[in-house]
Amino acid sequence: MDQRWDDAMTLALDMAANSPCPDPNPRVGCVLLAEGRVIGQGWHRGAGTPHAEVEALRQAGDEARGATAVVTLEPCNHIGRTGPCSHALRDAGIARVVIAQSDPNPVASGGEQWLRSHGVEVVTGVRCEEATALNADWTFSQIHRRPRVCWKYAASLDGRSAAPDGTSQWITGEEARHQVQLGRARCGAIVVGTGTALADDPRLTVRLPGVTRQPLRVVVGLRGLPADCHLSDNSAPTLHIASHDPAEVLDLLWHRGVHRVWLEGGPRLAGAFLAADLVDEVIAHMAPMMLGGGRAAVVDPTVTTLSQAHHFVIDDVTQAGPDIQIHAHHE
User: Fold this and answer.
1) pTM for the full model?
2) Is there a contact between 127 and 9 (Cβ–Cβ < 8 Å)?
3) Is the dihedral of CA 63, 65, 68, 69 positive or negative?
4) Is residue 53 annotated as part of the catalytic site, yes or no?
5) How many CB atoms lie within 10 A of CB 182?
6) Which residues form the CMP/dCMP-type deaminase domain (predicted)?
7) One digit per residue, pLDDT tens: the chain, 331 residues?
8) Residue of 35, 53, 121, 129 marked active site
9) Counting CB atoms within 10 angstroms of each CB, which of 237, 275, 324, 331 has the fewest?
10) Would you tell me how many other CB atoms lie within 10 Å of the CB of residue 185?
């Protein structure tokens, strides 16, 4: 593998990590080199702002002519809120473009081919795995044309999410609840059913220091919400989707620029997503208690025998205070 661009790509990846997450756009960093010297660098600061390549070109000015651009994602080749970065690089006189990840978005891709056809040398695949991991949810959503779905639930060791009298706060401890806040912060939308919204009156907000952008709160179901419930306040945007169709829900969120969905329940909504084969990850918080009855964590009427079970691969098992956190992905 060509090692000439590793240091510059490391810097570009560091730049990209400054980009907001979540955001409708991918996280991208760009470094411009002239005779081994950094003459410009930039990262994308969110939807509607200049792309990383444009930021770096502004810093470099006239020095960009004949330089090398090292960028974590294939320069876009379409006109959206901003112009195509492939054209901006060529127009600035960039002689070589080094790319980590090819763009999986069919609307924006094509920059590599366009640059080659216009006399610019292109090197691809440098630190591709790291660049792809930086935009894992965005990449998934571009390939599948829907958001990635992570179902989070809390339950007792015998799989109950509430006691027989309906009480459920709090099954898990403070450490597990902090992990939930971190998980919510990574997502573009938090989704619950109307049953959970009416029974628990949740806030569904991220309560962490420094968080300025709240995920979209999504309530799925036909019943309306009372005007005085927490989901009707102005602490975060709320969308009520009057449907029971998980695919319809994800399509609506996809067109709103959501790439990762945090599915919090309840058990029937989670079961509907499982039955539709639309749960990609599971984060289960298991409390060291037995309830012996009460509400099950999930209800899926399509599973009537063991051979119909939904199978997942465990990625990680950790302890959060007294509780166990299991992270798994769909086979």
Assistant:
1) 0.89
2) yes
3) positive
4) yes
5) 10
6) 3-123
7) 456 788 999 999 999 999 988 888 899 999 999 988 999 999 999 888 899 999 999 999 999 999 999 999 999 887 766 678 999 999 999 999 999 999 998 777 788 999 999 999 999 999 999 999 999 999 999 999 999 999 999 999 999 988 888 888 788 999 999 999 999 999 999 999 998 888 888 899 999 988 888 999 999 999 988 888 999 898 899 999 999 899 999 999 999 999 999 999 789 999 999 999 999 999 999 999 999 888 888 998 899 999 999 999 999 999 999 999 999 999 8
8) 53
9) 331
10) 18
Token representation of residue 287: 């409390």
Alpha helices in the chain (DSSP H): 6-16, 52-60, 85-91, 111-117, 128-134, 136-144, 174-185, 194-200, 246-254, 267-275
Structure tokens at 278: 């639309």
Rg (CA), the chain: 23
Instruction: Write the burial class of residue 216 (CB in 10 Å: 0-12 exposed, 13-18 middle, 19+ buried).
Output: buried
- For CA atoms 194, 199, 149, 30, the dihedral sign is positive
- Using a 10 angstrom Cβ sphere, with 0-12 exposed, 13-18 middle and 19 or more buried, the burial of residue 308 is exposed
- Write the CB contacts of 57 (distance below 8 Å, at least 6 apart in sequence): 32, 40, 64, 88, 89, 92
Cα 152 from Cα 180, distance rounded (Å): 8
